[in-house]
C-alpha cells in the first residue's frame, strides 16, 4: 500500500474552483450618480433608486402554524427545512391533506411568493416559490407576497446582507430563538430601482449565482469523494494490513472476507472492558461546566465541543453513573440519529446521553486507537448500519455491536497501522479543509455580489445585456 491512496486526489482538490466567467463586485462599474439614502448604515444609493418599507411592496402572512397529520399522499407542506439560500429543496418534504386543515388557516403558495423562516438556526433565510412547487401550502413560516415589485428582485433583497444582517439582528434571534414577526420584517427598508431594472438585476443574479452554485456543488462532490476514499483506505488497512505480500486466510466472516493469516478474530465485546451508553434522565443545562455530549456533537474522528451544551458540576457529580462519564481514550459511537460516527474521547470532562455509546478498550488486547479506527472503516461501518435495529428510526444496539467480529493483528502491528493511517488521514483532512475553504469563499462571493447588486453599489446592466446577447 502506498501514499498514492490519498495523494492521487490531491491535484483535483488543489486546483480548487476556477470561477471562469464569474466576476467579483469590484469588477463592475458604479452608477454615474448617487444620493444619500437617508439610512446611516446604508450610505449612498443610485440617484434614481427609492427607499421604501417592505410592507409597501408586499403583503406578509403566516403559515398554518402547528402542522396537521402528515400523509403518504397529498399536497406538499413547505417548512423551514425546505428553505435554503433562495431555493426550495426536497429535503424533509412532507405531505398533508388540505381537508385536515381549517380553510381559513391555509395559505396556498403561488409562483413568486417568498417563504421567510421565522425561528430556529435558519431564522431569516428565505426562498422563492417557482411554478413547479405549486400547488403547495405554507407551514409555520411567513409568506411574503410581492405586489409592488418584481418577486425575484425582492427575493435577492431578502437574501442580502443589508437586509438580513443590518436590519434584523439575526445573531440574537438565532441564539435566543424568538420568532421573527411580520411587523419586524415589514418595517425593513428595501432599495428599489425601476421595474425594468429590477428584472434586469434579478436575471443577472440568477445567472451569476447559478455559476457559483455549480462550483460549490463540485467542491461538495469532491468532499464526498474524499470522505468515501478515506473510509476505503481505513477499511483496507484494518482488514488487510500494510503488507500486500502477507499470507491470507478466510476470516470465517462472509462480509469480511480474507484477513492476514497471523491475525485473530475477536468480537468487539471481547476487546472491551465495558460497552455502555449515556444517561436517559433529564439533566440541567448551564453556561459553563462539564460538556453534555449528544450524537450531534460526535463527528467522524473528533468531538465538536464548540457547539456542545454544558451541565452543572453538581449534576455531573450526583446525577450520573460512571457509564455516562467517558474517560480518556474511550471510543464514542453515535447510536441514534446519524448512526456510526466514531471518535476517541480526549479526556475532556464530559458526559454522554443515551444517543452515544462508549467503549472502554481492553488495552492488553487492543489499542484504543486501533479499535477506534477499525470502527471508522467502511466494512465495519457498513456492518454496524446493517445490524441497526428499529422500524422507522434505526438504532445501533450495543448488544449487537458487542458481537461484531474484528480482525485483530498483534499490538505492534496495530500501532504501525495506526501510525500509517494517521499520515494518510492528515492528507485527506487537509484536502477536505481546502475544499471547505473554497466553498466558504464561493459563498462569500455570492453574498457580496447579491448585496452589491440589489443596493446599487454596482451597475450590472451592461453585463446583463452582454449575457443576454
Describe the protein's architecture and organization:
This protein is an alpha+beta fold and 469 residues long. 35% of the residues lie in helices and 19% in strands. The protein contains 13 helices and 24 strands. The strands form nine sheets. Strands 4-12-9-10 form a four-stranded antiparallel sheet, with helices on one face. Strands 17-23-20-21 form a four-stranded antiparallel sheet, with helices on one face. Strands 8-5-11 form a three-stranded mixed sheet, with no helix packed on it. A hairpin with a 2-residue loop joins strand 6 (83-84) and strand 7. Helix 3 crosses helix 12 (411-454) and helix 7 (195-240) crosses helix 9 (368-376). The longest helix has 46 residues, at 195-240. The radius of gyration is 27 Å and the shape is elongated.
Alpha-carbon Rg, integer: 27 Å
- Give the end-to-end Cα distance, rounded to a whole number of Å: 54 Å
Which sequence of strands runs across the widest sheet?
4-12-9-10
Report the uncertain regions.
1-5, 11-16
Beta fraction: 15-25%
Structural class: alpha+beta
Number of helices: 13
Q: What is the arithmetic mean of pLDDT?
A: 89
Please bin the fraction of helical residues.
Answer: 25-40%
How many extended strands? 24
Q: So what's the overall shape?
A: elongated
In this structure, how is the largest beta sheet organized?
4 strands, antiparallel
Amino acid at each position: 500500500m502506498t501514499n498514492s491512496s490519498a495523494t492521487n486526489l490531491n491535484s483535483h482538490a488543489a486546483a480548487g474552483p476556477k470561477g471562469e466567467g464569474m466576476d467579483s463586485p469590484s469588477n463592475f462599474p458604479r452608477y454615474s450618480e448617487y444620493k444619500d439614502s437617508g439610512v446611516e448604515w446604508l450610505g449612498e444609493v443610485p440617484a434614481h433608486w427609492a427607499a421604501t418599507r417592505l410592507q409597501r411592496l408586499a403583503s406578509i402572512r403566516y403559515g398554518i402554524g402547528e402542522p396537521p397529520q402528515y400523509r403518504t399522499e397529498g399536497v406538499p407542506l413547505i417548512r423551514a427545512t425546505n428553505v435554503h439560500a433562495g431555493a426550495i429543496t426536497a429535503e424533509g418534504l412532507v405531505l398533508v391533506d388540505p381537508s385536515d386543515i381549517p380553510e381559513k388557516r391555509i395559505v396556498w403558495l403561488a409562483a413568486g411568493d417568498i417563504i421567510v423562516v421565522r425561528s430556529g438556526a435558519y431564522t431569516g433565510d428565505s426562498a422563492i416559490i417557482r411554478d413547479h412547487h405549486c400547488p403547495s401550502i405554507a407551514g409555520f413560516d411567513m409568506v411574503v407576497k410581492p405586489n409592488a415589485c418584481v418577486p425575484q428582485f425582492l427575493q435577492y433583497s431578502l437574501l442580502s446582507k443589508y437586509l438580513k444582517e443590518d436590519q434584523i439582528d439575526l445573531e440574537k434571534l438565532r441564539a435566543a430563538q424568538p420568532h421573527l414577526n411580520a411587523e419586524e420584517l415589514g418595517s425593513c427598508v428595501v432599495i428599489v430601482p425601476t421595474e425594468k431594472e429590477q428584472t434586469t438585476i434579478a436575471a443577472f443574479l440568477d445567472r451569476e449565482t447559478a455559476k457559483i452554485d455549480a462550483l460549490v456543488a463540485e467542491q461538495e462532490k469532491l468532499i464526498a469523494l474524499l470522505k468515501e476514499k478515506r473510509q476505503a483506505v481505513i477499511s483496507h488497512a484494518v482488514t488487510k494490513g500494510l503488507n500486500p505480500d502477507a499470507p491470507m486466510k478466510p476470516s470465517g466472516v462472509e462480509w469480511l472476507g480474507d484477513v492476514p493469516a497471523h491475525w485473530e478474530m475477536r468480537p468487539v465485546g471481547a476487546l472491551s472492558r465495558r460497552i455502555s451508553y449515556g444517561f436517559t434522565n433529564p439533566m440541567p443545562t448551564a453556561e459553563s461546566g462539564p460538556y453534555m455530549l449528544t450524537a450531534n456533537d460526535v463527528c467522524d474522528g473528533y468531538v465538536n465541543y464548540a457547539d456542545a451544551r454544558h451541565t452543572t458540576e453538581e449534576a455531573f457529580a450526583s446525577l450520573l453513573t460512571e457509564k455516562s462519564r467517558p474517560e480518556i481514550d474511550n471510543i464514542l459511537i453515535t447510536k441514534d440519529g446519524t448512526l456510526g460516527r466514531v471518535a476517541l474521547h480526549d479526556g475532556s470532562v464530559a458526559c454522554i446521553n443515551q444517543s452515544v455509546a462508549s467503549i472502554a478498550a481492553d488495552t492488553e488486547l487492543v489499542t484504543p486507537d486501533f479499535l477506534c479506527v477499525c470502527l471508522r472503516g467502511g466494512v465495519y461501518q457498513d456492518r454496524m448500519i446493517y445490524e441497526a435495529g428499529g422500524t422507522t428510526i434505526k438504532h445501533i444496539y450495543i448488544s449487537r455491536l458487542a458481537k461484531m467480529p474484528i480482525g485483530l493483528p498483534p499490538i505492534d502491528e496495530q500501532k504501525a497501522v495506526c501510525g500509517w493511517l494517521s499520515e494518510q488521514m492528515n492528507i485527506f483532512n487537509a484536502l477536505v479543509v481546502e475544499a471547505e475553504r473554497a466553498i466558504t469563499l464561493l459563498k462569500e462571493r455570492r453574498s457580496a455580489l447579491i448585496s452589491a447588486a440589489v443596493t446599487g453599489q454596482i451597475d450590472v446592466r451592461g453585463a446583463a445585456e452582454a449575457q443576454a446577447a
